[in-house]
Amino acid sequence: MPQIRPISQQLAEVARRVLNEDATQVESHLQVVRSWLVELDLQSSLVDDQFLVAFLRGCKFSLEKVKKKVLLFYQIRSELPQVIQNRDPYDSEVLKIIRMGVGIPLPKTAKPTDPKLFLIRVGSFRVSDCTFADIMKVGTMINDIVMREDDQMVICGMVLIIDLKGVTASHLMHFEMDLLRKVAILNQDASPLRMQGIHILYPPSGAQTALNIFNGLLSEKNQHKRIYTHGRDLKSLHEHFSPEILPKEYGGELESIDTIAKQWETKLLDNRSYLLDMALMHLQPCSTPSPGGKNGSTNNTFGVDGSFRKLDFD
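Below the sequence we write its predicted structure tokens.
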């Protein structure tokens, strides 16, 4: 039997209806993917049934898509050592970034089958203390935990609330385009977590250029998701999200952002061993030219070539 955490009947119904999950077929799908990983010498104690079912759900149980996404998961992490490596939450420099609370999953939703909320406070990124890569490092640490532990986010997806209050030109100067592109691939194409919408708060004057860059980094699929700009009007935000699921800084009834950030600090520290192990899950690209197109994949039985190629991120 697959070693998968039981989910509620409500989540199971969403998984069946939206993600094509058939409980009678999950084990056979896992066997195919596990065999394929052995063939490519990518088996790992971290790549357990719970890890793989997240990718199956994120790809709506398409084996071809799962394998492409898993390959990309390994590949893009090898392209981002400044984000994936040196991620010990007990390290004072990493802990400093964690305590900024730039990106924080919120704990509640109105309904147990709603997408989870992920709050990003860009202005909390203190540019004098760290780099954009440092911020992305902590975001990836959080995503690694969410992908393993949060069935609701894996099955129902996530909605981003992006707070631009306090953003200045100095923030934008830290956003290196090459790094942004790779991080966008990491968080969209190589992740089983599905984005369901984006809500933007407090866009500063002259922010349209930055928003255009952000829109250009969205995958083709995510470009079709709804993007809402609320300006400085929290009432507009409350038309989409009840105050009972928002922190008090956003007119909500939850505890403060600092309290939620402290809870995530504890979770990251508790998961230190897992986070360090996950830093090993990357693949050095080979230099052999790819005959199968820029993504280096060709069609075979499983939809992905059995050898790794260097992906073109330009």
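The first helix runs from residue 9 to 19.
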